[in-house]
Write a structure and sequence with these properties.
259 residues; alpha/beta; Rossmann fold; 8-stranded mixed beta sheet; globular; Mycobacterial_A85_antigen; AB_hydrolase_fold; Esterase-like
């Protein structure tokens, strides 16, 4: 794999932005690393970080480079600060950045496929929210999305007194979140009702996670909808040992090219 620490200017944010990118590299002699390449344009996973992290975290806490290498999968890991992947009420337009500008720039910088069937998103916690928001909002551009211990009920989380001030800076009037374009329940229902080609959805959460009840509620709701939906749970907390294990499950689940 090639590992790129990429810094670039974002017109959407008006500041320099950062992302880590790993790209498939076919090698016959590299010790301890299996490799695979799918043609000239790589299938791509946009892998999103959580609230307290940045674009470096997946490389620092997991073996994502090793896991992706044997699959021939490119991985793009952008930094979005504490934005909840949203055009913030008081802050930067991170939703416009992550959903529009970033994929366009990444595909112009690197040999990444623009085909829907070879584009995916995944993330943990806040990043799980961002990944599902991305694929549910843009089913025409993504074939699959995965949430690991995700914030799936943003309206409930925003009502937490300890988080309300922070969430108000991001979303504005949090009483209007339910049923909005920031509400995953609303986006899932809207996509199901549209009867269009929908992305595959994967959701997992540890049973000891503080977000477990929210994830069960979202799971039960998704099971009532016309979606290609997979849910997994097992013992686990909101921590990296669990996420390192489950990102491997996500990669096995992705609809990657067969050759």
């Amino acid at each position: 794999m090639a590992f790129i620490d990429c810094h670039f200017y974002s017109e959407t944010l008006g500041v320099s932005a950062s992302m880590y990118v790993i790209l498939p590299q076919l090698s016959q002699s590299q010790i301890g690393l299996k490799s695979k390449v799918h043609g000239d344009k790589h299938p791509t996973l946009y892998l999103l970080h959580g609230l307290s992290d940045d674009h470096t975290i997946w490389m620092r806490r997991t073996s994502i480079e090793r896991y992706a290498s044997e699959l021939g999968l490119a991985v793009v890991m952008p930094a979005v600060n504490r934005s909840f992947y949203t055009d913030m009420q008081s802050g930067y337009k991170y939703w416009s950045f992550i959903s529009e500008e970033l994929p366009r720039l990444a595909q112009s910088f690197f040999p990444l496929s623009s085909d829907r069937e070879f584009n995916y998103a995944a993330g943990l916690s806040m990043g799980g929210y961002g990944a599902l928001k991305l694929v549910l909002s843009h089913p025409e551009r993504f074939a699959a999305g995965a949430s690991l211990s995700g914030v799936v009920d943003i309206a409930r989380l925003a009502d937490d007194p300890e988080r309300k001030a922070d969430m108000s800076l991001i979303f504005g009037d949090t009483s209007k979140l339910e049923g909005s374009e920031s509400d995953l329940f609303h986006l899932a229902k809207q996509l199901s009702d549209a009867k269009t080609t929908a992305p595959r959805i994967y959701q997992c959460c540890g049973t000891e996670d503080f977000l477990y009840k929210d994830n069960v509620r979202f799971r039960d709701y998704c099971r009532t909808l016309d979606l290609d939906y997979t849910y997994e749970e097992e013992q686990g907390e909101h921590e990296w040992g669990y996420w390192d294990q489950k990102i491997q499950s996500v990669l096995r689940w992705l609809p990657l090219p067969s050759q």
